[in-house]
Amino acid sequence: MHKLTTLLLILLYGGVELVAQSGKISARISDEEGLQNFAFAEIALYQLPDSNLIDGTLADSIGNFSLKRIPNGSFYLAISFLGYETTYSSSFEVKAGQSLDLGVFKMKANELLLEEIEISGRKKSSFHQADRQIFSADQYRQAQGGSASDLLKNLPSLSMDALGNISLRGSSGFILMVNGKRLEGDPLVFLNQISANSIENIEIITTASAKYDPDGKAGIINIQTRQSALNGLYILGNLQLGLPSIEDYDNKEQARRYGADVTINYKNGKWDLATGLDYRRNDIGGRRVGYVNTYQNEILTEFPSYGERSFDRESYSARFSAVYSPTKKQSISTSIYAGKRTQYRTADILYDFQQRSFIPEENFLGPQAYWDLYQSQGRVLEGSQQISELTYFNENLRVRKGDFLIGALDYDLKFTDNSSLKLSGLYERTILGGPTDNNSLAWPNTRDTLQLQVNDNDNPLDGLRLQADYSRKWGDLNWESGYQYRYLSHPGDFIYLDKNLQTGEWIPNPTFTNRIELKRTIHSIYNQFSGKENKLSYSGGLRLEYMDREVRTASPDTLYSLDLLSLFPNLSLSYDLGDGFLLKGGYSRRIQRTTTFKMTPFPEREHSETLEQGDAELLPEFVNQIEAGLVKNWGEDNAFLSLYYRKVRDVINRVNSIYNDSILNRIYTNAGNAQAFGLEMGSSFHLSPKWNLYLGGNVYNYRIKGDLFGERINTSNTIFSFNASSSYQFSSSFDIQAAFNYLSRRVTAQGEDSRFYNPSLTIRKSFLNNRLSFNLQWTFIDMGILESNEQRITTLRNNFYTTTNYIYEVDVIRVGLTYRLNQASKKVKLIKSEFGDKEF
């Protein structure tokens, strides 16, 4: 302990000495009337006599800025802000230990811009810091008019499969944040609601600091919305319309795709008010072709199938936020969000010639052999001792509904000693549920019902989050500390009814009818330090969390408890090698907590051949991740390369087992330990003033070892994904962009998922000085010659084989209009679901 104290004193004294050997400058930016605060204005520091760029920074939310550790010498500043002329300071001298206040710099509006004479320029497509990569949304035109998920799938670390699931470095476990505020719900639900038009940048944070929740085994995705500090009225409106489907897959209904959203913001003096309305209808047509066989008690059951697999999705929401800043050092904000979402998943499947055959164990060839025979012959096994056969049609409609009401209150206070305090609270009330109708009909006479079942559930959710954060600066050293409390209550009533076809009576099925109640409490505290020493930037911290989780089932009356006390350290380093090279590395420990859905221990009838079931004793996944990378910047372009290693304890997998000869039980379970060793890379090139190219990719080896239903698992393979996009600007108001996203074959605990890819093309034309823009988006380009938007999922063990090819709609064409009034962009502080969407 004495040695540790001595070391800390030496470090602290050394830091004080270093600060004392350099100077500091500070100033404030305003306009000529003293009304505008110029948040995030760019400041560049140049040294005389050669005008070498020494350092730079951004102004804070009220236009203040400071630069520290400036060596002795003569300097001047260049201050830039969109819509204003660049302002240059007079030269000034800096001496060791001096703190120089340069006063107020007044910016002059750019007259050419005010007259709406167009100014063009190019932004960097990506930036790199010690713990994150930052990508500019403007580089991905193919996502404009769509949602955030359309944008994310183009980034080098991210990939998307046929079901729309997004993975970061091969893992679907990540935290989603908007403007630095965590969204507790299912990331995919939010990403499909956030408009791509409203996004400025996307941050991929893989070694997050201790002040962030450690949830999400792959890291954090932070979406930064467009922002401006201008006073006045701001209106942004978007319309989108999907053209009729080119391929309808013989679905019952035509897919409908349209939507509209409007954001209205008014800022004046101490008040900042915003409201938003959103409506989306986003259907997707498709079909599925499947085959299953099971082997029990020397009986082989085969049941090939094909039919409709489509989704009807509808959502609408209303949001309101108000920020009141009585002084420059404090603000109070409140937000309210109410919304409703409904999803109808139709799976109307023909089970064509279900057959049971007697095969002695000594003659059994293995499950995959009979699939190979089916592929080669186009029919189930012939010449065996047939026991029975059946062809039937299964109508299956799964409805998922969610009503949300969320309220938040925040208070921010800045002190005069370079410290600040933030208090925040959020409450959420969510009602989830929706029936599943499972109707098996005779074929071809579908008027005869063979089996009719309905299961319904009611899942009200209450969530509460309270948080306090304190930060302070000593020179170049930043210290942050805080406490967070999270509480979740999520009961659920599950009702399963079978219809007696003789009497017409609905009879509860005791095997599946049950009740579950989950309660989870989390207390956490953290400390985080960060700073810069010459060319070295560093950040490190520690978070301590205590979790108390209780899951109770009604039948039988059982309580499953889990208490965990966990430490989550992190460290990030970056070093400027000069000549545009940056070396960086980091380590973090994270946790992936499961949802209530995956812990529900009684089955739910997903469709005719599948039951879905969770595990009330499911353990969270603990993750250790190490990474190192190199970045090269030149001009407006850059390239990066990162190596990473991720080890996961108690990895959760969705696996299958036999429930009976014609039904598989889909179970979520801890399957063992997994590890991934990977390499990700990306680069942007401006091939000409009008033509640019972006390339990104991720390749990793994934291995999983464990025990599954008494069998040892040891599987691995190498997985890769790559994203490419190229755009050409014919004029300042007209451009075209082509893109291609590819995800390779992937191994799972019991099988594999096939490759998946998506070519796309986007054309954009702007009018009225870029206030009005029109875009045409063609996604999943297929033209009848490719296999876009199609993926096969296969699982097998020694007693079953199942494979399903999901074929979703291709050649989807959408058109969109965007109109902006008064301002080019504006950051709007609107909250999202903290708890409920994760269960949706």
Can you put this structure into words, describing what you see?
The chain has 840 residues and is mainly beta. 5% of the residues lie in helices and 64% in strands. The protein has a 32-stranded mixed beta sheet that branches. The protein has a six-stranded mixed beta sheet with strand order 9-10-15-16-13-14, with no helix packed on it. Strands 2, 3, 5, 6 and 7 form a five-stranded antiparallel beta sheet that branches.
Task: Please give a quick description of this structure.
The protein is mainly beta and 840 residues long.
For the largest beta-sheet, the strand count, sense and barrel status come to:
32 strands, mixed
Q: Judging from the principal axes of the Cα atoms, what is the shape? A: globular
Q: Give the uncertain stretches in residue-range form.
A: 1-20, 111-123, 823-830
Question: Strand-residue fraction?
Answer: over 45%
Number of helices: 5
Q: Evaluate the radius of gyration.
A: 29 Å
Give me the count of strands: 48
Which structural class matches the secondary elements?
Answer: mainly beta
First-to-last CA distance: 50 Å
Helix percent reads: under 10%
**Mean pLDDT value:** 83
